Amino acid sequence: MIQPSGRRDRTKRLIETVAIYVLLTIFLIGVLFPIYWMVISSFKTRIQALTLPPLWVFKPTFDNYIGIFQHRPFAHYLLNSVIIATSTVIFTLIIGTLAAFSLARFKFRGSDDIALWFLSTQMIPPIIALIPFFLILRMLYMLDTHLGLIMIYSTFTLPYIIWMMRGFVAEIPPELEESAMVHGCSRAKAFLKITVPLILPGFVATGIFCIIMCWNEFLVALILTGDTAKTLPVATIDFLSERGIMWSHVCAAGTVMMIPILGVSFFVQKYMIRGLAYGAIKG
Q1: Were both Cys, which of 42, 69, 123, 218 would link to 233 (CB 3.0–4.6 Å)?
Q2: What's the pTM value of the predicted model, to 2 decimals?
Q3: 75-102 burial, b for 16+ CB within 10 Å, e for fewer?
Q4: In this structure, what DSSP letter does residue 278 have?
Q5: 3-state DSSP call for residue 240?
Q6: Residue 129, SS3?
Q7: CA 154, CA 158: separation in Å to the nearest integer?
Q8: What are phi and psi of 62, to 5 degrees?
């Protein structure tokens, strides 16, 4: 018996939908399982974390979290990461958005080349510039300081912010700003009152990506900091010793590192999703 074409089409679409959901489920499990394993391992003892085959049922303990905060100045390192990442993102977002606005609105000879030059700096591996940065900060007596690390992180994040925000600003019709200026606004006031609210989703999405970059950065902070300005990623190597790796403490430290970023992303997810989709549809 031959099925009608409509029924065959519905069956085909159903199979395709099921296949897509199965593939997405497998992909999601692959992405989330390492995070899940890190979190549950942070509640195991050191012996339980190394047990083979792995323990799936166990009595959770908070000793690892107590240990990283009581036996080591982990709260100090957490505060360092918050200060350095937040200050870097705020500073670079302000400067980068103004630079992006200038490149998007004022066309002059070489403006496109300047924008491309900013993007090209992202192709340089940071390790190449580590020795010059180290020598400069040592000369300025800024090694192992918050300000020194903020300056270095700004050089990495600023080109990314300029390039991203330039695209968001370019999506805003300049006629809106011109109309505001006709009604008495200055260029700066038109930018603050008209452009900034419209690019806010892109502003938030760019800021989230930049704060993740600064929060997770390891190599630069390892070379340019000691105990005073040490950040969380660098602090995790304290759990490596000649007796082995304290995996349960490492997992607890990783979980603590993950919570602030998840919290920020949760509260700004509405703007972040709008920012990621910004410019996909014109109209």
Answers
A1: 218
A2: 0.81
A3: eebbebbeebbbbbbebbbeebbebbbe
A4: T
A5: strand
A6: helix
A7: 6
A8: -100, 15
Q: What is the pLDDT of residue 95?
A: 92
CA distance linking residue 31 with residue 209, whole number of Å: 18
- Which residue ranges of the chain lie beneath pLDDT 70? 1-6, 110-112, 242, 268-283
What is the distance between the alpha carbons of residues 199 and 17, in angstroms, rounded to a whole number? 35
135-142: list long-range contacts, CB under 8 Å, 24+ apart: 137/224
Provide the pLDDT for residue 270.
Answer: 66
Neighbours of 242 (CB within 10 A): 4
Write out the DSSP string of 70-121: HSS-HHHHHHHHHHHHHHHHHHHHHHHHHHHHHHHH---TTHHHHHHHHHHG
Query: Which pLDDT does position 273 carry in this prediction?
Result: 59
Give the pLDDT score at 146. 93
Question: Considering only CA atoms, which of 164, 151, 159, 152 is closest in space to residue 126?
Answer: 152
Helix axes of 111-120 and 146-170: crossing angle, nearest 10 degrees: 130
Domain limits, the chain: 5-41, 72-276
Distance between CA atoms of residues 176 and 34, nearest Å: 47
Element (H, E) at 244: strand 244-245
pLDDT at 4: 60
CATH domain 72-276 topology: MetI-like fold (1.10.3720)
pLDDT at position 277:
55
Residues 251, 42 contacting (CB under 8 angstroms): yes
> What are the distances in angstroms from CA 271 to CA 16, 87, 91, 109, 275?
32, 21, 20, 35, 6
